[in-house]
């Protein structure tokens, strides 16, 4: 038995980096598909150029992929979630909110990157839209991937980061600047995993230096929240925490109930109404999904 690190995941095929740095294509036994890029695994060599993943070591964090009927794992053992937005095209507040929730629920450090700051006439409006998140204490780094992608490197030092962003925000520009060999590595990995299918989403872990890692997943726009119940979502809104448990009713849905601590905080201006509405939008999805799902055992959010 050997230990290794999953540096690429593509369907049920994985590329595992061994202690000496060599890469070994690996499979799982049976239908098991709960291995994610970034996982530390125990493997058994089944031939010279192939191995079997026998066990997954305990994870410090786990991120899911969204937009699918099924929840899929996307990355494990991540320290930092980098949310890439840009001065243009317009970005989605909801996507930032959901990415922040995914990070909060796994105790991953979120970082918002405002890219394309070279487009200075668009900068004030973008900054204004991010103000809500800045007020909550989330860190925002402004940069231009085209001109100074290196500005991000110090933020990535010493941790394992994952990048998420709507298409057009400049995520690939950023990755290609920070990991010049990214394209070649992706091709190599595709070959190693014997897959010509570039349409399938796969995650790849790149070593930035001895201490820093970057996990990129082309087409990764949104992290899933479907594994979280209502309580976990409430707690993931960091400014809600001080008020939770203070409503008159223990099972308060923070809707119409009398003496709701959250509604009182919104009315007092201590909770941003936009955030409160975002909470209800996300919980609302849950209600719809639940009614169409037969085997749902507890509250789930899409
Ligand atoms: P992705 O879909 O997020 O991977 O975005 P891309 O990296 O493909 O970038 C989308 C477009 O934005 C491309 O035309 C890039 O050249 C452009 N772009 C990326 N970063 C910057 C930047 O910092 N400044 C400007 N002006 N354009 C950028
Ligand atoms: Zn309430």
Give an overview of the whole structure.
The chain is of the alpha/beta class. Helix content is 29%, strand content 26%. The chain has helices at 93-105, 123-135, 145-148, 153-156, 171-178, 182-192, 230-236, 261-267, 273-292; strands at 2-10, 13-18, 23-28, 40-47, 50-56, 62-65, 72-76, 80-86, 109-115, 139-142, 160-165, 203-207, 213-216. A hairpin with a 2-residue loop joins β4 (40-47) and β5 (50-56). Zinc ion binds at residues 247, 252, 254, 257, 260-262.
Return residue spans where pLDDT drops below 50 for at least 5 consecutive residues: 286-300
Q: Report mean pLDDT, rounded to a whole number.
A: 88
Order of H and E elements: EEEEEEEEHEHEHHEHHEEHHH
Number of DSSP helical runs: 9
Describe the strand arrangement of the main beta sheet, using strand numbers.
Answer: 1-2-3-5-4
Q: Which small compounds were modeled alongside the protein? A: guanosine-5'-diphosphate, zinc ion
What general outline do the C-alpha atoms trace? globular
Termini separation comes to 38 Å
Q: State Rg.
A: 21 Å
Helix content: 25-40%
How large is the share of residues in beta strands?
Answer: 25-35%
Give the oligomer, counting copies of the same chain as homo and different chains as hetero. Answer: single chain
- Number-wise, the strands total 13
Structural classification: alpha/beta
Largest sheet entry = 5 strands, mixed, barrel
